[in-house]
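We recall that each integer encodes one residue's backbone shape. We quote one record:
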Amino acid sequence: MHTAAEWVHMQTTTERLLYPRKDAAFQLGVSVRTLDYLVAAKQLDTRRVGKKVLIPRGSLVRFAAANHYGPVSGTVSQ
């Protein structure tokens, strides 16, 4: 059995394997809409659990480690 302090420590030091869209967007520093564009453009991998769309941590790390020069949505408004 774990003490309350041990539970708090485990929760703060354990990284998630899968992130909900809102949390994944926060991790990348982008909006949820931008994250949705990245998913639609297949720049981020996803996993589904029921109706939930989850983003694997490795996909976020790979995306953050690369340079991205083009527009996110794939179109430029003029």
About this structure: The longest helix spans residues 4-13. The mean pLDDT is 85. The longest strand covers residues 52-56.
